Amino acid sequence: MKELQVDVAVIGGGTAGLGAYRAAKRLTPNVVMIEGGPYGTTCARVGCMPSKLLIAAAEAVHQIERAPGFGIHPQGDIKINGREVMDRVKRERDRFVGFVLEGVDEIPQQDKIEGYARFIDDNTLQVGDHTRIQAKRIVIASGSRPAWPAAWNSLGDRLVINDDVFDWDDLPSSVAVFGPGVIGIELGQALHRLGVKVTMFGVGGGVGPLTDGAIRQYAAATLNTEFYLDADASVELIERRGDTVFIRYQDRDGQVQEISVDYLLAATGRRPNVDNIGLENTSLKLDERGVPFADRLTMQTSVAHIFVAGDASNQLPLLHEASDQARIAGENAGSFPEVSPGLRRSPISVVFSDPQIAMVGSTYRELNQKFSACGCFEIGKVSFENQGRSRVMLRNKGLLHVYGEQGTGRFLGAEMIGPGAEHIAHLLAWAHQQEMTVGQMLDMPFYHPVIEEGLRTALRDLESKLKLGHSEIERCQRCPGD
């Protein structure tokens, strides 16, 4: 058994693990990174980058299909070669992974420990059956994995997750997508536009990350113009029959329907990889999901020398969040016992559907819980259906809600579905992080004609509804939900 004594041990070699290792290494030389699987990141291997490659192919098809609306009629039928589509997805995916691995190769070999780590106690890690590590500080960056109902395991290789999709050599003829979240919507719509018959089922009515009922309803209706989506489905039977998956369900009209599909794509969420690393052998305080509690500004857990970062933290499972958490956790592990709060940026999330879905700052649900008792926030609205630039481009679908605080006029957040939502979301995130008021945002320049003029319309609507001044501020400060 090899014995090591280190200043910092990082569990995981993905986005958060690599970031934490590098941050800690700048402050203390004796750092190791432990990884039991392939090095690299979820984003590059099976997440944001390969999914965008599939979406890009789907957008190319959609542009051709939309061309007659401009009086342009492509010759002949559109031919989608699934093998060529997936070949490019995999080639470019491997290229992105290669860039990550180049960075891993630059890490000294002695700093990379291969194997799965388990806690023996608060300072001791066992890696496989070959290495025991005594670490003064530890960063848990063990990532997450897809989760699905255990009953679906009977489907065998007819059950797939997003990881599997990007290893397909060809496109199937039909897929049932369970889970209209970010992954389900992105992959489901892309596959549909590439000629795959897609049927999508959800539970509880959720569509993407949206919490604003009006935006969610608009998103569901818009997606349903392309493929069947029931965000609160009643599924009676799922079973494997030969090389297909048989599904019996009640449709939105209450009629029983039966379909057979090539695959069931499980997009039913992810769970942090913290259930198999021996946390029961530590004195860490855990939440109801078994995830260590952590301060979001320092990433420090209830055990002062243990930090957590990335998907394992069960905070926001997004690459930019994982990178920020990694930097904070790594720097604090490296400089411990000196611990400093790090920069946490305004929340921003994007679903690369068409139209795109985006959220910024506080969600409608959060604001409603906080202010519903006293009406201390207002909503500004705009539809993109008649917005000038959107109509010019035949992309005039969408709805944007912006939220502002009564009294101060401060911009609080937004939820939207619409053209160019990724770009509008970035503008709004910058404004939110700067704690700008709605009035200050309206003082910013808006060019003509651009989609962002729709944002100005929503902000003007919000400004007209806000009541400003000290008396309103004092009233809202007394709000029982605050």
Automatic annotation (TrEMBL):
GO terms for molecular function: flavin adenine dinucleotide binding; NAD(P)H dehydrogenase (quinone) activity. NAD(+) binds at G179, P180, G181, V182, I183, G184, I185, E186, G269. It comes from Budvicia aquatica. Binds 1 FAD per subunit. SUPFAM superfamilies: FAD/NAD(P)-binding domain, FAD/NAD-linked reductases, dimerisation (C-terminal) domain. The lineage of its organism: Bacteria, Pseudomonadati, Pseudomonadota, Gammaproteobacteria, Enterobacterales. Disulfide bonds join C43-C48. The active site is at H448. Gene3D superfamilies: 3.30.390.30, FAD/NAD(P)-binding domain. This is Dihydrolipoyl dehydrogenase. FAD binds at K52, D311. Belongs to the class-I pyridine nucleotide-disulfide oxidoreductase family. Its cofactor is FAD. PANTHER family: MERCURIC REDUCTASE, PYRIDINE NUCLEOTIDE-DISULFIDE OXIDOREDUCTASE RCLA-RELATED. Residues 349-458 form the Pyridine nucleotide-disulphide oxidoreductase dimerisation domain.
